[in-house]
Amino acid sequence: MIKLLEQNKKYILGLSGGPDSVFLFYYLLDRGIKNFIACHVNYNFRTDSNKDLALVKKMCEKNNIKLIFKNINQNYSELNQNFESWARKIRYDFFCKELEKNGAQAILIAHNLNDHIETYLMQTQNNKKVSFYGIRAESIYENKKIIRPIISYKKSFILKYLKSQNISYIIDSTNSDIKYERNKIRKNLSEKSFDNFIKEIDLKNEKIKEYNIKIDLLLNSKELDLLNLNNNEEWNEYLIFRFLEYNGLNVEIYCSKKSFIKEIIKQLKSNKSFIEISKGNFILMKDYNKFKIINKKEINIFELSDFEDENFKKFLIDNNINENSNIIITNNWKKYQSKLYVNDKLLSKIYKNKKVNYFERYKNVLIFNKTSKIVLNKIDI
């Protein structure tokens, strides 16, 4: 990967002061790649975190490398989310900001082969669908390119190199705290097993790649034809996972239970023609043989009954309706369809017989007399 970096391009290097980023720092310099800016985040999470900053300052000054650091003042007793996820977002957002400000082409992160294997084991342990097993050598974050030049290097090689060169680095004491899932895995992981894990990862990622080639042809809108589901549960899970991801539900997927996608598939394959699942800012809807992702802003349910209301008056005028007492105006078809009549026929039966799309029903404004329950306006059926 390091061979692919270009000397004439500018990079942002995430420099924590730990062995991996320190290794990458000197490895870049040794190969003549000096056009980079080191960026460091001091979270002040550990009492000795200032030692990290002192080390990276010394490294950069000695080697004439620009250093930009961000100091975090946070009351960690009030942090109500996962520290690692929170810290990662702080760090990557900072790197992206500096990339833009300094006109850099990419961000260099010092993930190594051990990180790659550990991530894979965490993914399989959590049993959640992912778009890639392990850590990609290159990825995109907020439209910025992330490169991991030492992803193929074992931790043992990195430590051996640093020792042979008498290079100092900082050991983060929290890395031995087994309350963190990654640290538990790391403690019991042997590099002797890496070859087998790499084969597993490559096979799984190849399978995902095969699926993605087919799935990419199906992802072109906010709806998915349910005829694309079949008896292959793995295919079904990746198809629904990618469809949700494609439509911007990344956060909702990763913050959900392990069984979230399986539960969706179970409902989609049921005999029910209409299902609504609320998820964050979205509604996941089974609409006959279509699976639709709808932003909640697209479904604005209303009900008007005050004849002094300007919107109420406008609906009556637009539909040439003269009476204004005892009238309800709404698009809440779910609430009223089994009570209202259109040309002496129950609205729910008309919708059912004509298979009117459930989402389209929200677009029908129903103007009716509360007593007679007769729809007074023309509706699209």
TrEMBL record:
Localization, UniProt: Cytoplasm
Gene Ontology cellular-component terms listed: cytoplasm
Domain tRNA(Ile)-lysidine/2-thiocytidine synthase N-terminal: 10-188
EC number(s) per entry: 6.3.4.19
Pfam families linked to this entry: ATP_bind_3
A molecular-function term among this protein's GO annotations: ATP binding
Main location as per UniProt: cytoplasm
Catalytic activity: cytidine(34) in tRNA(Ile2) + L-lysine + ATP = lysidine(34) in tRNA(Ile2) + AMP + diphosphate + H(+)
GO biological process: tRNA modification
Residues at which ATP binds: S16, G17, G18, P19, D20, S21
UniProt keyword annotations, A-Z: ATP-binding, Cytoplasm, Ligase, Nucleotide-binding, tRNA processing
Family annotation (PANTHER family): TRNA(ILE)-LYSIDINE SYNTHASE-RELATED
Family, similarity comment: Belongs to the tRNA(Ile)-lysidine synthase family.
Role played: Ligates lysine onto the cytidine present at position 34 of the AUA codon-specific tRNA(Ile) that contains the anticodon CAU, in an ATP-dependent manner. Cytidine is converted to lysidine, thus changing the amino acid specificity of the tRNA from methionine to isoleucine.
Domain notes: The N-terminal region contains the highly conserved SGGXDS motif, predicted to be a P-loop motif involved in ATP binding.
NCBIfam families: lysidine_TilS_N
Protein name: tRNA(Ile)-lysidine synthase
Gene giving rise to this polypeptide: tilS
